[in-house]
């Protein structure tokens, strides 16, 4: 079973403090949506409002076309997996999973059937008689998911469920969650501050910052065409390079942008109406900057720190005017700190950000 | 880390040998009166009239204990103590748990203020309210009744404080998970929260039971009829004269008899008591 979720003009205030401001979002049935943002951006609060653990100050939330923001959490037809798993410590795994079903008077045989199904799905059938303290972190995580599955909810809500797992287990569980979503076809809303989780799991990512939504889009949309400077800086590792600009003028059908660090670059972009170069920046990802052969024409960069990741090398350095720049090079690159390099930019991959942070992308990208 | 470093080494005890001697000396000091009473209880009253040093000489007898069975009212008093201590323990556990849960988890007007008022209860000595309490119980005709003996100690400021702190320490997500599991407020309290506070319940229960069993002050005021005496009052009333020159063995036997439940409670819950006294530092 899966259901759509509509969030309409939702605001959340604690007294005078506004933590979410006029949020609207439509989630389709069966969609995997990820709320991504830094700590304190309001993403967990929004999830908790869908779950019913926080009141809605203004606006409405509907699940499957039925308004739920006035209903208690247990009546909304959603199940939640908490960051801390929140398993009942004194109950066995089976009791943890069946507690919610007992509360709504599901027949014993049906409870057993559902618990068995969930346990088999998550490969925890051999743990059913154990108590949570006898389980590893990964196993607890599965039980928490199992507790959600048995309820056959209209939507699953995940509040940073992978953040307590070690790196290897996190990767594996991420994959299993994607498989689970494929198998159950349920609507899933997932909160994280980890962009890898967001990029790999989401059908669409909702990027939040400072009480509001910055951008909603598919993982590749938010990566390739970030709506704002914040999204460009937040999504992607290493973070996008930003170069302050001095002036921009149209030159034929290309925009000629003058910068201190890069000199003048020509970008396949039209000058946005009312654009002012003051406070504006150019953005380019490290992967769109390459190291040129020695003596070739290009821009000078002095390397400061080198990160060797095996398959690629990240070179952190500065341009002649001191602007910081990160370059992604081949894994075999032998640059050392202090080396002077020549770099070349893929100008079709440049993004222009005006002083409000709004992005302008080259056509066709 | 190598296993050698983590292995417990008995040398650390020998290194603290002076401390060990002090502990042993203090233990003997504490045990001596207990051993003395037990010794007196197995001597005949006639022997003891010659002098209590006869405790170190044969013969010994269990006649005093048999006398308790036949002649004394100790069994009645024992029963009274049991009713009062169990009643008080049960009452304190129920009230403290409910109040603690409310203070820790429910939103209601004046919650903080009320909690502070409860905490003030910790600072009020029993002696300060005893006359007013006596007067009240007199008006309601509650003296010389189980209710009269149990009721005053049910409102335990310490119990409410302990349970509130314990409920507060339970992660809020557990309640929230139960809310999403469609559990009612009472079901969350009964099926989830209460079982999680069992260690605190055990601590509070043991202390309440021991306090109630050994309580002397209020039963002395409230229970004036012999059949309503608790053990502590009963034994005190059995003293024949100030110097206690006669019936000393019998009196000692009653004292030993009175201590048995406390000893049993202690033996069963030893681990909990040690944990409670050490403030949870010992696991």
UniProtKB/TrEMBL annotation, chain A:
**Keyword Aminoacyl-tRNA synthetase included in the entry's annotation:** no
The record's section on NCBIfam families has: PRK11650.1
**Entry-linked InterPro entries:** AAA+_ATPase, ABC_transporter-like_ATP-bd, ABC_transporter-like_CS, ABC_transpr_MalK-like, ABC_transpr_MalK/UgpC-like, Mo/tungstate-bd_C_term_dom, NA-bd_OB-fold, P-loop_NTPase
> Which compartment or compartments is the protein found in?
Cell inner membrane
Q: Which family does it belong to?
A: Belongs to the ABC transporter superfamily.
The species is Pararhizobium antarcticum
Which molecular function GO terms apply here?
ABC-type maltose transporter activity; ATP binding; ATP hydrolysis activity
Name of this chain's protein? ABC transporter ATP-binding protein
Q: Please tell me where this protein is predominantly located.
A: membrane
Automatic annotation (TrEMBL), chain B:
Any one GO CC term of this protein is: plasma membrane
Ranges that cross the membrane: 20-42, 77-102, 114-134, 146-167, 188-213, 248-269
> Matching Pfam families, A to Z?
BPD_transp_1
Arranged from A to Z, the UniProt key words for this protein are: Cell inner membrane, Cell membrane, Membrane, Transmembrane, Transmembrane helix, Transport
Q: Which residues form a coiled coil?
A: none
Where in the numbering of this chain does the ABC transmembrane type-1 domain appear? 78-269
Range of residues in the leader sequence: none
| Cross-referenced CDD domains | TM_PBP2
Subcellular locations according to the entry: Cell inner membrane; Cell membrane
The protein's topology relative to the membrane is: Multi-pass membrane protein
Q: Which InterPro entries match?
A: MetI-like (IPR000515), MetI-like_sf (IPR035906)
Q: Name one GO biological process term.
A: transmembrane transport
Q: What does this protein do?
A: Part of the ABC transporter complex UgpBAEC involved in sn-glycerol-3-phosphate (G3P) import. Probably responsible for the translocation of the substrate across the membrane.
- What is the protein's quaternary organization? The complex is composed of two ATP-binding proteins (UgpC), two transmembrane proteins (UgpA and UgpE) and a solute-binding protein (UgpB).
Family, according to the entry, reads as follows:
Belongs to the binding-protein-dependent transport system permease family.
The record ties this protein, via PANTHER family, to: ABC TRANSPORTER PERMEASE PROTEIN MG189-RELATED-RELATED, SN-GLYCEROL-3-PHOSPHATE TRANSPORT SYSTEM PERMEASE PROTEIN UGPE
- The protein, known as: sn-glycerol-3-phosphate transport system permease protein UgpE
Top-down, what is the taxonomic lineage of the species of origin?
Bacteria, Pseudomonadati, Pseudomonadota, Alphaproteobacteria, Hyphomicrobiales
Q: Which gene carries the instructions for this protein?
A: ugpE
């Amino acid at each position: 079973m899966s259901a759509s979720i509509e969030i309409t003009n939702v605001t959340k205030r604690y007294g005078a403090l506004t933590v979410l401001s006029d949020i609207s979002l439509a989630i389709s049935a069966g969609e995997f949506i990820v709320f991504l943002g830094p700590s304190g951006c309001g993403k967990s609060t929004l999830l908790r409002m869908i779950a019913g653990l926080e009141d809605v100050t203004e606006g409405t939330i509907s699940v499957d076309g039925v308004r739920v923001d006035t209903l208690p959490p247990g009546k909304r037809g959603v199940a939640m997996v908490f960051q801390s798993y929140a398993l009942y410590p004194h109950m066995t795994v089976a009791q943890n999973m069946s507690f919610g079903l007992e509360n709504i008077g599901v027949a014993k045989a049906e409870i057993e059937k559902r618990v068995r199904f969930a346990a088999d799905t998550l490969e925890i059938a051999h743990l059913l008689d154990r108590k949570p303290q006898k389980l590893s972190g990964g196993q607890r995580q599965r039980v928490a998911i199992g507790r959600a599955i048995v309820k056959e909810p209209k939507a699953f809500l995940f509040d940073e469920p992978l953040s307590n797992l070690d790196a290897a287990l996190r990767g594996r569980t991420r994959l299993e969650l994607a498989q689970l979503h494929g198998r159950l076809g349920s609507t899933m809303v997932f909160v994280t501050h980890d962009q890898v989780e967001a990029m790999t799991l989401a059908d669409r990512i909702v990027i939040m910052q400072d009480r509001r939504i910055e951008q909603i889009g598919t993982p590749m949309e938010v990566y390739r065409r970030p709506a704002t400077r914040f999204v460009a800086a937040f999504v992607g590792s290493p973070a996008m390079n930003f170069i302050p600009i001095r002036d921009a003028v149209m030159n034929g059908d290309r925009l000629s942008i003058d910068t201190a660090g890069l000199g003048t670059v020509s970008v396949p972009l039209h000058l946005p109406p009312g654009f002012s170069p003051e406070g504006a920046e150019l953005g380019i990802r490290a992967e769109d900057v390459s190291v040129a052969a020695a003596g070739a024409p290009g821009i000078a960069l002095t390397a400061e720190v080198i990160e060797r990741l095996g398959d690629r090398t990240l070179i952190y350095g500065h341009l002649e005017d001191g602007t910081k720049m990160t370059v992604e090079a081949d894994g075999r690159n032998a640059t050392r700190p202090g080396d002077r390099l020549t770099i070349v930019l893929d100008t079709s991959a440049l993004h222009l950000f005006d002083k409000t942070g709004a992005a302008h992308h080259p056509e066709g990208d | 880390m190598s296993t050698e470093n983590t292995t417990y080494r008995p040398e650390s005890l020998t290194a603290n040998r002076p401390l060990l001697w002090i502990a042993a000396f203090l233990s003997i000091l504490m045990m001596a009166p207990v051993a003395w009473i037990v010794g007196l209880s197995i001597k005949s009253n006639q022997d003891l009239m010659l002098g209590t040093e006869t405790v170190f000489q044969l013969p010994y007898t269990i006649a005093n204990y048999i006398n308790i069975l036949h002649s004394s009212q100790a069994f009645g008093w024992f029963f009274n103590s049991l009713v009062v201590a169990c009643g008080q323990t049960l009452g304190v556990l129920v009230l403290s748990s409910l109040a603690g849960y409310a203070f820790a988890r429910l939103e209601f007007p004046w919650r903080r203020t009320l909690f502070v008022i409860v905490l003030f209860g910790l600072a009020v000595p029993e002696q300060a309210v005893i006359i007013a309490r006596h007067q009240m119980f007199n008006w309601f005709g509650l003296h010389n009744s189980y209710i009269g003996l149990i009721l005053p100690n049910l409102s335990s400021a310490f119990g409410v404080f302990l349970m509130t702190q314990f409920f507060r320490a339970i992660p809020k997500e557990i309640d929230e998970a139960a809310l999403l599991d469609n559990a009612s407020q009472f079901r969350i309290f009964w099926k989830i929260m209460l079982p999680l506070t069992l260690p605190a319940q055990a601590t509070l229960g043991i202390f309440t039971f021991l306090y109630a069993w050994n309580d002397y002050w209020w039963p002395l005021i409230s229970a004036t009829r012999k059949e309503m005496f608790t053990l502590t009052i009963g034994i005190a009333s059995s003293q024949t004269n100030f110097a206690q020159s006669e019936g000393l063995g019998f009196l000692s036997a009653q004292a030993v008899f009175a201590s048995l439940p406390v000893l049993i409670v202690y033996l069963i819950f030893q681990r909990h008591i040690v944990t409670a006294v050490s403030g949870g530092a010992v696991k």
